[in-house]
């Protein structure tokens, strides 16, 4: 009985102690909260700043100090199409008290930042005077900037077009035209499909792919090149990126030098451009009154782009001379008149509010010259006549039908009977006896008596044919030997044996 009473008293005492401890602890926490405010637990952050185990008062003091240093390093870049500018730090205000008040213990919390709408309106009207921004758009942009700055991480980039309303007016930012008499029906269908085409942000546009989808294999190469050149000329008036562009060896008719973009499906020559902006742009294309017209429409750009031909260098063609046996002495035929070559250097001026900011290089196109080709007659060999009226060479051999006449450019017989050739190629010349004589190759023909084979010339009789028969006087069998009218001429067979 006594032991049970002791146990009961012990339980009463323990319960009373726990109750007193809890009341004391709660009272202390309440007093601490009442006097010092709430205290954050572990892993409590406001932006990048650690507020763990700090009271709200301590946290607010710390944030004021940290944000003061961060304000000097604040960087918020405002991006609009082809321009980027920084927002002044004085337009942004961080609120440490509001940050601590809404902060949750043991969690990651955002900083509370506000952007001055009046200051932002003034800034945008100065930096983007071509836009008309409504009050609702100003409020939306300010809220978007504040949201970016809540993290406390710098630098931040804010795309302004994300907050502009769809009712924002558009404008024609580029135009181009090429004089063309007319197009084929398939080409007119391509222009109809291209008119109103939306160039999406940061997406390449391939003209060759577009044509293949609309009129595969039905367009003439010149028509495709003219359209690509018009698009290229328009793109140079914008901040669009030209990803792929080629020129021909000869400038396409009707295309302005320096602004050609060749299309060749067989060679895979394409024209590719990309819209680098954050909104879509619309391409318009049509053929009207003998002119191909191309334009690009969308939100206005900050800068104006003016491409121009800065320099043109001309290259005269070389003259190539060809020799022909079909031409008479003194006759000259121009087979190809030739064309000048060109180098066209294109640059681009960039303006802001009418003031020139910079000049940048665009392209250097080269069109090689086409050589002039002239055809001249073969050069006639120098010769003299003997007493019989037959032309003879310097060795006394007569040969009106020499089969070793040289043809080609610059070849002529010399005193020892060998051909003198320059480095130019020569053409074959047929002698009357049917023997081909090559200006670059001559053959030796030795008579049986061992006379004269070193001069590379053929031993010819008056009939103009080659002979291997020994002459009656044992020398060269040439047309200048004197015949005895009273003596019968010997007769030989094909093997050269005397038969009579």
UniProtKB/TrEMBL annotation:
Residues 469-484 have a biased composition (Polar residues). It holds the Pfam family G5. Keywords: Signal. Residues 383-468 have a biased composition (Low complexity). Residues 381-500 are annotated as: Disordered. SMART domains: G5 (SM01208). Residues 302-379 form the G5 domain. Residues 1-31 form the signal peptide. This is G5 domain-containing protein. It comes from Sporosarcina aquimarina.
């Amino acid at each position: 009985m006594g032991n049970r009473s002791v146990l009961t008293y012990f339980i009463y005492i323990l319960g009373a102690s726990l109750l007193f401890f809890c009341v004391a602890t709660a009272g202390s926490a309440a007093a601490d909260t009442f006097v010092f405010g709430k205290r954050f637990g572990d892993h409590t952050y406001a932006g990048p700043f650690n507020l763990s185990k700090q009271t709200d008062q301590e946290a607010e003091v710390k944030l004021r100090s940290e944000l003061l240093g961060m304000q000097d390093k604040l960087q918020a870049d405002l991006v609009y199409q082809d321009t980027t500018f920084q927002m002044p730090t004085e337009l942004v205000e961080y609120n440490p008290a509001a940050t601590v008040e809404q902060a949750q213990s043991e969690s990651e919390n955002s900083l509370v930042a506000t952007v001055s709408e009046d200051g932002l309106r003034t800034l945008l009207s100065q930096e983007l005077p071509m836009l008309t921004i409504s009050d609702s758009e100003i409020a939306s942009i300010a809220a978007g900037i504040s949201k970016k700055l809540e993290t406390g991480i710098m630098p931040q980039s804010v795309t302004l077009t994300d907050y502009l309303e769809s009712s924002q007016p558009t404008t024609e930012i580029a135009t181009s035209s090429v004089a063309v008499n007319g197009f084929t029906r398939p080409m007119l269908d391509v222009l109809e499909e291209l008119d109103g085409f939306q160039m999406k942000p940061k997406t390449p546009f391939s003209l060759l792919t577009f044509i293949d989808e609309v009129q595969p294999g039905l367009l003439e190469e010149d028509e495709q090149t003219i359209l690509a050149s018009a698009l290229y000329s328009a793109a140079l008036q914008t901040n669009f990126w030209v990803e792929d562009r080629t020129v021909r060896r000869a400038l396409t008719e009707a295309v302005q030098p320096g602004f050609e973009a060749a299309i060749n499906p067989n060679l895979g020559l394409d024209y590719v451009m990309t819209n680098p902006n954050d909104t879509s742009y619309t391409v318009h294309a049509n053929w009207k009154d003998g002119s191909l017209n191309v334009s690009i429409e969308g939100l206005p750009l900050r800068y104006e782009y003016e491409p121009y031909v800065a320099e043109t260098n001309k290259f005269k063609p070389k003259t190539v001379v060809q020799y022909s046996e079909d031409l008479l002495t003194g006759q000259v035929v121009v087979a190809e008149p030739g064309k000048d070559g060109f180098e066209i250097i294109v640059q681009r001026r960039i303006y802001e509010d009418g003031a020139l900011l910079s000049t940048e290089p665009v392209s250097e196109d080269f069109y090689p010259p086409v050589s002039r080709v002239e055809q001249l007659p073969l050069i006639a060999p120098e010769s003299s006549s003997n007493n019989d009226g037959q032309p003879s060479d310097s060795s006394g051999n007569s040969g009106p039908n020499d089969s070793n006449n040289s043809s080609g450019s610059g070849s002529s017989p010399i005193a020892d009977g060998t051909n003198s050739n320059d480095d130019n190629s020569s053409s074959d010349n047929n002698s009357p006896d049917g023997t081909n004589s090559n200006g670059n190759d001559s053959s030796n023909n030795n008579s049986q008596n061992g006379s004269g084979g070193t001069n590379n010339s053929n031993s010819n009789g008056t009939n103009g044919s080659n002979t291997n028969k020994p002459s009656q006087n044992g020398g060269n069998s040439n047309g200048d030997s004197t015949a005895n009218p009273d003596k019968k001429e010997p007769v030989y067979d094909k093997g050269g044996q005397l038969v009579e």
